[in-house]
Amino acid sequence: MSFNALKKGMNARVTRVSSDSGEMHRLLEMGLTEGTTFRVVKVAPFGDPVEIDLRGYRLCLRKNETKGLEVEPVE
Q1: Domain spanning 3-74: which superfamily?
Q2: Which of 51, 56, 64, 71 is least crowded, fewest Cβ atoms below 10 Å from its Cβ?
C-alpha cells in the first residue's frame, strides 16, 4: 500500500523504497529503511504533512517526499 493511505494511529512497516531521488536518500539516512516499523501520530486535515514515530523520534513528512515508499500495516 502507499504511504499516503495511512491513517492516524496505524502501525506500519516499510516494505520497499523504490525511488533513488535526493528526498528518498535523505529519508534513508534518517532511518526510514526497508523493514523499519513506525506509528502514524498525526495526519493534517488535508493529509499533508503526516507525523510518524520511529526509532525513538518523530518525523513529519509531506506527500511528495514519500512517493517512493511502499508500506504494509502491522498489528
Answers
A1: Ferrous iron transport protein A (FeoA) (2.30.30.90)
A2: 56
What 30-36 contacts at long range (C-beta under 8 Å, 24+ apart), as own/partner pairs, is 30/59, 31/55, 32/59, 32/69
Tens digits of pLDDT across the chain (75 residues): 888 889 999 999 999 888 677 778 888 888 888 999 999 999 999 888 999 999 999 999 998 888 888 999 998
* Residue showing cell 512497516: 13
Cell of 15: 516494505
Instruction: Give the integer Cα–Cα distance in Å for 64 and 75.
Output: 26
- Percentages helix, strand, coil for the chain (3-state, rounded to 5) are 20, 40, 40
